[in-house]
Request: fold
Amino acid sequence: MATLTVQVSDADGLLPTFNAVASGGDVFANPGDVLLLFRSTSGAKTVTVATPATVSGLAIDNPAITVPASGFQFAGPFNPDLFNASGNVSLTYSNKVALTVAVVRAKKV
Reply:
């Protein structure tokens, strides 16, 4: 499992860096205002976001994000109370081939 770097966008904008996803999944630091931008260049993919939290002792279903074939998909933000484990969100992928992600948050002014 790899740790993804959170990139910060400001008033000047951001040309995001896309990173290849790891076969064992990825994590990223989540203060609650992070967005993910996925890009697939070959076939549709499913990204699963772990929800370690429970409600009254019951597990919360892990949301599945569909990244279209040869397309982009935004996801987030992720509520830390539901999605964080030790300050991080965990992601797994149905297929990592030709799937990249940019992890972005807006700079607070």
About this structure: The domain at 2-106 is CATH 2.60.290 (Hypothetical Protein Tm1070; Chain: A).
